[in-house]
Amino acid sequence: MLNTQTYLKIASVLLFSLLMLAPFGATQAQNRINMPYSIYGLGEVRFHHNYQTMGMGGISQAFRSNMTVNEINPASYTAVDTTSFIFDLTMVSHFYEQKTSLLTQQSDYISMGNLSFSFPLTKWWAFAAGMKPYSLMGYSIRDEEDHPMAGKVHYLYEGSGGLNQLFIGNAVQLFDHLSLGVNASYVFGDMRREASIFSDSADVFQTNLLYTNRAGGWMLGFGMQYEFVFANNRFLTVGATYGHQQDISLRTKETLRWRLPGVSAYDTLSHRVLDEATLSLPQHYGAGVFARFSNNWAGGIDYQWQNWESFRLPGQEKTFNNSYQLAAGIVFNPTLETYSPFIYRWEYTAGIRYGQSYLRHQDETINEFGISFGVHIPVRRAFSGIRIGFEYSQRGSVDDHFMQENFYRLNVGVNIYERWFIRRRFF
Predict the structure, then answer these.
(1) Helix, strand or coil for residue 25?
(2) Which residues neighbour 137 within 8 Å (Cβ) at sequence distance 6 or greater?
(3) Which residues are registered as beta bridge partners of 329?
């Protein structure tokens, strides 16, 4: 049985999490994100991004840790110690540079990476929950042409919003080294797309067409990990995840508005709710290995795949590629003991990844490459600490009228590791 103090600690973390999650969607929508490729599909997909291991290329399939939550593979939850409670909170600062053969633009924004916690229910059963983005959308694209009647005509295409996922996971350890897990995730959010046309002429109305897609529904993801333990603190873990194609509800509102140039308020010409449709989240799977070679060195390799060729967004005829990512990462621990000198307990990571985006431009695939580095700085005489990661990645190229994107991401996370589930011997 858990004591009263433990229950109060769990309740306080749950309350704090709810307070953090309440403004989550609004914060994402208000960020001035500018990713032109997010005009297609669901935007910038973050479904399989692991922010805790970003410094190792994002590897996650076989990664297990008793000091952090790996929600990508729910089987990893059983790695948590039977007397501990883990809490992770990550913020990510993004700096984007987009350029073509003629133009260059830059943008930046800050978003929440993830909020998650985990604790054991029994020696063989563990629980986890949290929230993270599924996709982000944000773009502002301008075009213009000279019209013989209306003069210079301007076109403005804007988008914002995205999808979030709230997950609840359970994992059980079977036998000595086999763990199985499942995540039930509620995916929800709004995606806004606007198209405006206006002229420099004072006699021409500005016309605006607004589409708002509101999505919501459940999806399931399954995970497995098996650990081979060898002598001298060496081990090898094999992991895999799977999720089948799942449909969630999609409700679309269409609003047609206009206004005179210089007037701030729109007049609504029509507003209608379209027939409710379904949004099919694609099938996905992944596999990987992670090994500890010695007391100081460990590393792993991951592969992830998602079936986007069958994905269709109502009202958009765009077709997509199946996406994949291959990642590799290493971690170096100078020492693992809490009584060692402070600087020797820092953990250093590095990683690399390469993959194909689900986006397709002019029937050409868009590939992405990234390198990353990280460090975990523990609190003195404790395992809790601050995690800092940096990633540089590049997507696309400037050849054949393409656009190249350079990404710089700084990840700052707080990791809390506490021993809570201990029965007191004295009162």
Answers:
(1) helix
(2) 33, 35, 38, 42, 43, 44, 159, 160, 161, 162, 191, 192
(3) 300, 351
Report the length, in residues, of the chain. 427
DSSP single-letter state for residue 160: E
Torsion sign (Cα): 34, 35, 39, 43: negative
Q: Bridge-partner residues for 406, per DSSP?
A: 97, 394
Contacts of 244 by beta carbon, 8 Å cutoff, 6+ apart: 220, 283
Q: Are 36 and 144 in contact (CB under 8 A)?
A: no
- Which has the closest alpha carbon to 359: 303, 407, 409, 311? 311
pTM, entire model = 0.86
Tens of pLDDT along the chain (427 residues)?
445 444 444 554 554 444 444 444 444 444 467 788 888 889 889 888 888 888 999 999 999 998 899 999 999 999 998 888 899 999 988 888 888 777 788 888 888 888 999 999 999 999 999 999 999 999 988 888 887 766 788 889 999 999 999 999 999 999 889 999 999 999 999 999 999 988 876 666 788 999 999 999 999 999 999 999 998 889 999 999 999 999 999 999 999 998 877 777 888 889 999 888 899 999 999 999 999 998 889 999 999 999 998 888 877 777 889 999 999 999 998 875 555 566 777 899 999 999 999 988 777 788 999 999 999 988 866 678 899 999 999 988 777 667 888 999 999 998 888 876 555 554 4
Q: Report d(CA 24, CA 43) in Å as an integer.
A: 18
- DSSP for 95-140, written as a single string: EEEEE-SS-EEEEEEEEEEEEEEEEESSSSEEEEEEEEEEEEEEEE
Q: Which of 248, 278, 251, 111 is nearest to 187 (CA)?
A: 248
